[in-house]
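Q: Hi! First time doing this. I have a protein sequence and I read that you can turn it into a structure. Is that right? Here it is:
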Amino acid sequence: MAKTFKKSPWSNAGPIYVAAAAFVGGVVLFPASVSGLFLAGITSLCGWGISKMFWPKQLVELEDQEKKKEPEPEPVKEEEKKPDVDPDIKRRPRTGDKAIDKLLDEEERAISEMRRLDKAIEDEKVSSQIVHLEEVTTKIVDFIVENPGKKSQVRKFFNYYLPTTLKLLNAYDRMDETGISGMNIDGTKGKVEEMMDTSLAAFDKQLDALYADDALDISAEIKVMEGMLKQEGLKDDPITGLKL
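A: Yes, that's right. Below is the predicted 3D structure, encoded as structure tokens:
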């Protein structure tokens, strides 16, 4: 490893001390006059020059300038934000598909909120509606995880319909907490209950629509199989019971 050096500060200070000593000696030896001081100065200058020529050049070792810099510590990565979910909710394994994994995060947050609301709201009808909402949400996500190509079909469900439904339930919960019966409070709570029925019917249709392609495929398969059974004489006539 290459080393570098620099002159020690004493390399320059030494001759100065010699010059000072020579001047003091000259003042003592020569008469106290202007000429004596002049001679003392000459003596000091000579002492400095001679000592400068022969004074050892002390060197001190410096740190190797070519030494590699110590690697900077890697910045601490911020912990991935985990969804604010109920710890009792079992997390689904992530798929590696960003859109699907985001959907799973949204599902966990939504279900966590549903369960909180279910515990907070005492009305049995609304409670059963929340349970239904959780069930249909879970079934929709189950389908998308198994059929990721259809994730675009539920985008509006998770971006608008589900969050809005939870927002309405939260409004119901806040009014229910007041413990007061009044025209505005009771009227709003009643509207939320009606809207929940409408929303759940729509969510059930959303789930049903996801199976539309499967239903068509199955129907086509049934028709093909019925045709083959008929050709082979293996299908009974529904009226006579005879083989067709």
